[in-house]
Structure formats: C-alpha cells, structure tokens
Amino acid sequence: MTADDQKRISGQAAAELVEAGMVVGLGTGSTAAHFVKALAARGLDIRGVPTSENTANLARELGIPLVGLDDVKAIDLTVDGADEIGPGLSLIKGGGAALLREKLVWEASRRCVVIADAAKVVKTLGRFPLPIEVVRFGHPHTGRRLADIAAEFELPPPRLRTAERGIVITDGGNVIYDLASGEIADPAALAGALKSVTGVVDHGLFLDLADEALIGTDAGVVKRVP
Ligand code: 5RP
Fold this sequence. Notes:
The chain is α/β, with parallel strands linked by helices. The protein is built from six helices and 15 strands.
C-alpha cells in the first residue's frame, strides 16, 4: 500500500464518523482532501467549516455547503491531517501553511480526529520542521527573536519559508518560519516560549487537542486515543 492509499483509507474511515446535521471542520492537506472527497460521496446533509482556501475550493467543487467559523457556535467534529503524531496524540501541523485557521477550528470543535498515513507516527516530535506563523509586519525582527528563543532550547534558528514564487504567505496574510528542531524534549515548554514572542500568531504544536487518531496502515485503519 502506498502512503497515499493509507491516507485515503484513513480519510474514508473518518468520513464514516460524520452524521447528518453535523457541522464538520474540514482540515487541510492531501489526507484531509481524501476525507473531504469521502464525505462528499456520502451525500449527507451537513455543513462544513473549511480550514483553508484550498479546502474551501475543493469542498465547493464537490458540493459541500460551507459556513464560516464566525457563523457557528460550535463544530461537532473536525477531521484533519498532521505532519507528525507523537506521544499522547501530540501533533506537529502546518506543513500546508494552514496551522492558524486549523487551530482555530480545532479549538472550536467538540471532537477532533486526526487522520494520517503510518509514517507520520513518531516516538518523539521534531523530525518534521515546526512551522511558526508570524505577522508579516517586521517579521525579520520577530525571526531574530525566535532565533534567540531557539538558542535557549539549543535549537537552530528558524528559517523563513519560501517557495518558487517567493515568500510563502498564509491565508491570513502572515509568513511562516520553520524550526528544524530535531527531537523536541519538552513540547509544552517550547510552545509556551514561542507564543510569548510578539509577532508570533501561533505555531504548529497541537497539544492536548486530538481526541482520536485514525492511522492508515497496510493492515487497515488503526484507531489510537491519547
Ligand atoms: C496543513 C497541515 C496538514 O494537515 C499536514 O501538513 C499534513 O498534510 P498531508 O495530509 O498532505 O500529509 O497541517 O497545514
């Protein structure tokens, strides 16, 4: 089974959790896209809250009715991918630069299910560079402050994310710094330190947010709880 097959079966399993009438948070990325497609195929009467413009476009193409986070009091269930799944379902997210909207949607949700291929599961978070979303105004200064924080944790300086077309700008108009941390000994301490920097909007450490993981493996979908 390829990694994409594993992503697909995890997305399909998550789509089975959705019931008619629910408000559903729609994650971002290739695994979340499998979920959105499987959900659309079920044809249920639901409303989706997208976590990115990309996901909103996909959901619209598939005919899923959308509402904004501002328009709902709560979300019944959010399903989203992850870049890493560590102990206690601690996560690194933000590889797709959608971490801020994702975290806002997750935090407004009664239940959060993370879906992934088996390679995303790690013993200790930190193999995947940790994304940090930073306000664009004065971001080189914020980047230097982040480098100071990283040094306190004996980590290398975070690097501004760029792509072929230049600096990556998020849906919220911010930039991303990626911290190639290696193993993160104390994710909660690092999360707190990063959030303390003015100009940091949020980071990709999702701690104590996932209620359940559905991992696609060659032997089928494996459910994990924190
Ligand atoms: C986007 C994310 C994605 O969920 C994460 O990058 C996983 O992506 P994929 O399912 O394509 O591997 O956090 O910001």
